[in-house]
From TrEMBL:
Keywords: FAD, Flavoprotein, Oxidoreductase
Occurrences of domain Acyl-CoA dehydrogenase/oxidase N-terminal (ranges): 15-126
Record domain Acyl-CoA oxidase/dehydrogenase middle: where: 131-227
A Pfam family it matches: Acyl-CoA_dh_M
Start and end residues of each Acyl-CoA dehydrogenase/oxidase C-terminal domain: 239-387
GO CC terms: cytoplasm
Family: Belongs to the acyl-CoA dehydrogenase family.
Cofactor: FAD
Protein name: Acyl-CoA dehydrogenase
InterPro entries listed in its UniProt record: Acyl-CoA_dehydrogenase (IPR050741), Acyl-CoA_Oxase/DH_mid-dom (IPR006091), Acyl-CoA_Oxase/DH_mid-dom_sf (IPR046373), AcylCo_DH-like_C (IPR036250), AcylCo_DH/oxidase_C (IPR009075), AcylCoA_DH/ox_N (IPR013786), AcylCoA_DH/ox_N_sf (IPR037069), AcylCoA_DH/oxidase_NM_dom_sf (IPR009100)
Any one of the GO BP annotations: fatty acid beta-oxidation using acyl-CoA dehydrogenase
Native species: Nitrosomonas cryotolerans ATCC 49181
Lineage: superkingdom: Bacteria
Amino acid sequence: MLTINRRSTHTILAQSLANEVRRFVDELIIPNEPQLACKENQSAQLQSELAEKARSAGLWGLFYPASYGGKITALEDYLLVAEQEARTEFSSDIFGSHSALDAHMLLKFGNHEIRKQFLEPMISGKTIPSYGMTEPEHSGSIPDLITTSAHLSNGNWHINGRKWFVSNAHKATFITVLARTGEKDALLSSALSMIIVPANTTGLKVERPIPIAGSSLDQSEISFNAVQVPEHYLLGGCGKGLELMNQRLGIGRLLRAMSWVGLAQRCLDLMGARINSAHGRSARLPEKQLVRQHIGNTYQAIASARALIRIAARGVDTQCSSHIEINTAKMAASRALCIASDSAIQLYGAEGISDLTPLSGISKIARASRILDGTEDSLISSIGRQLIHFYQQKSTYSFD
């Protein structure tokens, strides 16, 4: 009973914070979306001002580690807040949520120097993290094909290679790089390591932004040419890269899924507003069967994704996580966003594909969601393989 009461208390706190975040988004961020979308210094200044207001309101870094000011400790509870934060695509920098995953990784696997030099400034909003895993020479992010190399010499890691689809690389203060530190014939489980590289290190170069559907979505290609960083910038121990990568991917996919559900909710709200607007009533949208199907299918997709995310998040919280649950939740959230954005655009017509609504930007994120953090094809193949293997051992799968 004590455990249930404690869980209930944490959930009540999360719901209260979610309500505050929703008001902040509705009153301060959404009205400023056109200005935030501009690629000018004025946009950056506005974003900084809103981030300071979020900090003053106690809404900054809500899913940071508790020892560094985070107010929500369970991933399942954070779903309530994350989906409210993500109802606008400009929220991650304003609420500091873009750094939450790195905050947990640096705290768990970083040494004292890493926490002091990288974690603490990041928590305070003074630095921006990035992560380099995928490489341009190979399809996807298959760990066995990683060629970016790092070897230890005279107390420094020497790093060479290229990474692409690196988020925030153009504005990052440091990048966590997955590199091959073992010999060519070494087992994959001990061949990779994660190393932190400050963005101003000699030999590190942002080669180019990578536009996605006409927008950057903050993706870039970077190169490492004889980069040298101190030995103690190693994260989690030499040869532990694959283990860290899997932990990062699992939590990262759920955090992304939560944000996609938030954007899908925004599309659902926009659909409701459109249907019941003067324009919608004059076009008799509330009476049309296909319109009802659009909004009904969108609700069903969002509700299903939220339930699957909650199950997967609970597994992470109780250290009983399953790749089947995590990957299924990620795909469900992606599909919910695709259904929601496409349905909303259909109801808005030409206005929906213009910059007069946020839907065109959301639709680009929706399409990218089926690729980023693991393509839908690779994830469904992985899920199927694991389920087939399960039934080679047992006769019934338990959903409890």
